[in-house]
UniProtKB/TrEMBL annotation:
Membrane topology of the entry: Lipid-anchor
Native source organism of the sequence: Escherichia coli
Keywords: Lipoprotein, Membrane, Palmitate, Signal
Designated name of the protein: Lipoprotein-28
Taxonomic lineage of the native organism: Bacteria, Pseudomonadati, Pseudomonadota, Gammaproteobacteria, Enterobacterales
Main location: membrane
InterPro entries: Lipoprotein_NlpA
Domain of life, source organism: Bacteria
Length: 92
């Protein structure tokens, strides 16, 4: 069965549903833990990790470099771990 991501947590209670692939954002809303209640968690080498991109003519701009440096910092990784109860996997 194919559903929108926001609907997936609700179908976990349906006895006809054996498995659902649910993003960390939606699983958080159920009160479940991505770390403790998952049967599988992708690692940072997943082809589905979020990718940050810039236009070719802007990729070396100072503000882009500063953003990447800030975003890929240990502080952001720690905040994501806290927000997503250990379910966020930094892809950098």
């Amino acid at each position: 069965m194919e559903l929108e991501g926001a609907q997936l947590p609700r179908v976990l209670d349906d006895p006809k549903v054996d498995v659902a692939i649910i993003s960390t954002t939606y699983i958080q809303q159920t009160g479940l833990s991505p770390v403790h209640d998952s049967v599988f968690i992708e690692d940072k080498n997943s082809p589905y990790v979020n990718i940050l991109v810039a236009r070719e003519d802007n990729k070396n701009a100072e503000n882009v470099k500063e953003f990447l440096q800030s975003y890929q910092s240990p502080e952001v990784a720690k905040a994501a771990e806290t927000i997503f109860n250990g379910g966020a996997v930094p892809g950098w």
